[in-house]
From TrEMBL:
The protein, known as: Cytochrome P450
GO terms assigned for molecular function: heme binding; iron ion binding; monooxygenase activity; oxidoreductase activity, acting on paired donors, with incorporation or reduction of molecular oxygen
Cofactor(s) for this UniProt protein: heme
Lineage start: Eukaryota, Viridiplantae, Streptophyta, Embryophyta, Tracheophyta
Gene3D superfamilies referenced in this protein's UniProt entry, alphabetically: Cytochrome P450
Stated family: Belongs to the cytochrome P450 family.
Keywords assigned: Heme, Iron, Membrane, Metal-binding, Monooxygenase, Oxidoreductase, Transmembrane, Transmembrane helix
InterPro entries, alphabetized: Cyt_P450 (IPR001128), Cyt_P450_CS (IPR017972), Cyt_P450_E_grp-I (IPR002401), Cyt_P450_sf (IPR036396)
SUPFAM superfamilies found in the cross-reference section: Cytochrome P450
UniProt source species: Arabis nemorensis
Pfam families: p450
Transmembrane segments: 6-23
Residues forming coiled coils: none
Annotated positions binding heme: C445
Amino acid sequence: MDIMVGQALFLFVCFILSCFLIISTTRSRRRSLGATVTPPGPPRLPIIGNMHLVGMNPHRSFADLSKTYGPVMSLKLGFLNSVVISSPEAARVVLRTHDQLLSSRSSNNSIRSINHEELSVVWLPSSSARWRLLRKLSATQVFSPQRLEATKDLRVKKMKELVSFMSESSEREEAVDISRASFITTLNIISNILFSVDLGSYDSKKFNEFQDMVIGVMEAVGNPDAANYFPFLRFLDLHGNSKKMRDSCESLLKVFHGFIEAKIGEKSVRSNPKDVVDALLDLTKGDEAELNTNDIEHFILDLFTAGTDTSSSTVEWAMTELLRNPKTMTKTQAEIDRVIGQNGVVQESDISELPYLQAVVKETFRLHPAAPLLVPRKAESDVQVLGFLVSKDTQVLVNVWAIGRDPSVWENPDRFEPERFLGKEIDVKGRDYELTPFGAGRRICPGLPLAVKTVSHARFASLFL
């Protein structure tokens, strides 16, 4: 009996010492970082944490909360620890100073439902060899200066088709769905760069299933989902996001697979690469092939979903703001008439001669970023942000929507005033942290060069009439 009591006492002492050692080590680690205080945040309810404070537009809810709790704010969303960044200074620390430690991704339930996080340049960890390969391919095969220059005439052609469609609609006195028209234009630009074919049509009589597929993916990723915060609910698919994601992606990948198979057949009789997919297929050959066709299909999935709906929604917001502000619309059109003339031909090189139009583009990105919270990041280890401790595995959200409307950064932040950018060097390339709609650092959107050209040119084409 005494032996059993002694053993129990020994085990209890060992347990206490182990707990003390763990706590001491954790505190020592935090002291070494110079931060022992977690970010402030609202009081939490049992189980759900702060989820009751998040509305249908989380970026707006977080912006309101940050007015009380500051630019580095801690939230508990179910089982998920989150930190929300809402100032340029804090964004600089996350996106530049600690870019490497905060560059992992926090994928959601819909992404995991198709295992896309294992193949996607968006969701793979930046430390992986596969991510580095896909990022390299993005930079060299899709968005390189050489590729953009080589496809310049293609983009001009697609913009002329947009102008022609809008002109014909105007003559018939038919309303134009700007979002749909710009989506089709962007879709055809990307599909021609990749496959050398048009995937969209302006003909309203033709039901465009491809657009519905892409939007289905975007909705599945962006819609609220309890499983993102309570992992044990994943198998229930309460919101139907997993099913929508699987159905939409299955349809998209089937389309891509068909084009790739056709390309493989063409390459048997033609050796020179014609487009991006041709170049990617060259990497599938040999015993040490860097890619397979499944990798290419998921890579293309990233390019379409990230580049089409986001660009069209930005153009739609730009036109909305210009219609709300007739004086700004008049100034923009007057600049176009002065530089191009009313019957001129639209050229990409003209954009550099239109500073007011460029300011309109930046102002739209400021007020209406396509990804208001960017893509969620995850801390790979404990890290300090403006004196606060962000613990390992915490989800980090950069609220670029809130930063773009911060009155301490922008004068009259809720007004659409392109003039604020005239004569200033602020751009969207990830160096000015008050305006980072494409992110910054190693996770900056690789499609930024094409997106800026496409959005600017589409607005130019829309206003040209």
